[in-house]
Amino acid sequence: MSILALQQVTKSFGPQQILDHVDFTIDTPTIMALVAPNGSGKTTLMDIIANLGRVDSGTVTVLDRPHTDQMLYTDMTYMQGDTTLFMNMTGQDHIELIQRSYHLPAERVEQVVGEFGIGQFLQKKVKTYSLGMKQLLLITLALLPAPKLVMLDEPVNGLDPKAVQSLRNALQRLNDQGSTIIFSSHDLSEVDRLTDNVVFLVRGKLVPITTLAPTTTYTVVLPDARFLTTLLDAEQVQLITPTKATVTVPPAEMAALRTKLQGTAHAILDAVATRQGTEALYFKLFSQNEIR
Ligand SMILES: Nc1ncnc2c1ncn2[C@@H]1O[C@H](COP(=O)(O)OP(=O)(O)OP(=O)(O)O)[C@@H](O)[C@H]1O
Fold first, then answer.
1. Computed from CA positions of residues 256, 259, 265, 270, in that sequence, does the dihedral angle turn out positive or negative?
2. pTM of the full predicted structure?
3. 64-116: pLDDT as tens digits
4. Ligand 1 centroid distance, CA of 201 (Å)
5. In what residue span(s) does the ABC transporter domain sit (predicted)?
6. Which atom in ligand 1 lies closest to the alpha carbon of residue 47?
7. Closest residue (by CA) to atom 18 of ligand 1?
8. Which residues, other chains included, contact 133 with Cβ-Cβ below 8 Å and sequence gap of 6+?
9. Which one of 18, 154, 211, 269 is most buried, by most CB atoms within 10 A?
10. In ligand 1, which atom is closest to the CA atom of 40?
């Protein structure tokens, strides 16, 4: 089964071509970052996937169903900007709407509300919320149903470091449970913390970072860093401290390593990708500022 499939998708606004015969598929659950300059079409693309925008030509399927299938809402959520919130309703009102629509047990709501620490302001009207509070509410609403596909438009915006950490943990857990997350962001260091799976939108085409930089260097933390030398070739591992090392491998190999060590005494506790710079690749791809 494919999670997402775009076939020859084209979209223009007047003379401006946003998507140019895009072919793209996601077949296994992943956390994918969508990266491109302002005005390139990230929101347009997510709108199209969520059936909030029309394609000029091509087809989009989500979970092997046309993206126009109304019932897909049970399997796909989309966090857009704060214009989707009702200013005169409380956060709690919003949560109850989602809880009723998706028949969610109270424990699920308690878990996610607790995870993001938003319980203390849920009784207030949304119009009194700060940018970060609105972001946290929007993220909570999108993640509550734990759908198969979650799309988040710039979720990191306005979040404090603790909230970013909660987001990171929540997305990782959802992905571990089989959900796919697509998010856009301009914060490239946070992108590198959240995922290896970066896809650039370049002149109307989707370009996976793996096609540009086949290996990634990760700074990993684990109880005994020397253990890595028993699993990987010498040139792939560089010990930094007894509990820290750099590992240079393709992203898929890193994912396999994490899975292999999960739950063992050698579990990888943290891994930060310092690929030959997502940022460096970004500047190489978008140096001419010609997208806008
Ligand atoms: N309804 C519309 N009518 C005409 N042009 C539009 C419409 N919606 C978006 N655009 C244009 O399409 C381009 C892509 O916009 P989009 O919001 O998808 O970019 P983005 O990559 O999400 O940008 P940002 O990073 O700034 O959020 C922009 O030039 C925008 O002005």
1. positive
2. 0.83
3. 999 999 889 889 999 998 788 999 999 999 999 999 999 999 999 999 999 99
4. 13
5. 4-228
6. 18
7. 41
8. 91, 118, 121
9. 18
10. 21
